[in-house]
Amino acid sequence: MRIRLPHVPYIAHKIALDLLNSGCVTLSAGIEPVAKEADEIIRADLQKERAIDERISELDEMSVNKKDMFWLIKRHIANDENFELNFEDRYGTISHKILETVWKKNLIDYKVSENRLKTIIYNAIDEYLKNYQKIEDAVYEKIDGYKQKLIPGTEEYELVFEKLYEEELRKRGML
Q1: How many CB atoms lie within 10 A of CB 97?
Q2: If DSSP codes are grouped into helix, strand and coil, which group holds residue 72?
Q3: Residue 27 gets which letter from DSSP?
């Protein structure tokens, strides 16, 4: 499943929280610096994918099966850029980068295997991605129950949505 940009801060925070709650890690500077590093690494990964997608954007002007051609070219460019398209492998790589970065910056200390910690990070990403649709559905249901009807796309709607989304994340132990 693909990570969407609005979800990055939540995933990053969940990674930091899961590392803290694992009992395997000591966070020397607290949750926020670890979440910040995870956020930056995930955003960099998404930006790299976006750059690959933009290199292919000229396909709109071609009269070929755009979807098939897009993926053919994307696989070729991703291979040239050493960018993993398989989500499982990609999130494994992201997990490794996050662990390596937070350790090198002395944000964590641990006495267990790196694989165990990479698994915690990977599972945090995976769990968030598996649950975000359920969380969004719960938020939509709450908004639908409001006496005052909110109009999707308005600033008020977005603020209420974000507040309720974060409440749902807290309720589920993800924030």
Answers
A1: 19
A2: helix
A3: E
Which residue, 130, 105, 92, is CA-closest to 36?
Answer: 105
Nearest CA to 71 out of 89, 47, 52, 46 is that of 52
pTM check: above 0.85: no
Q: How much of the chain is helix, strand and coil, in % rounded to 5?
A: 75, 5, 25
DSSP output for 27-86? ETT-HHHHHHHHHHHHHHHHHHHHHHHHHTGGGGGS-S-HHHHHHHHHHHHHHHTT---S
**Interior angle at CA 147, CA 141 and CA 151, nearest 5:** 70
List pLDDT tens digits, range 105-150. Answer: 999 999 999 999 999 999 999 999 888 889 988 999 998 888 888 8
With H, G, I as helix, E, B as strand and everything else as coil, classify residue 166: helix
Q: Give φ, ψ of 114 to 5 degrees.
A: -60, -35
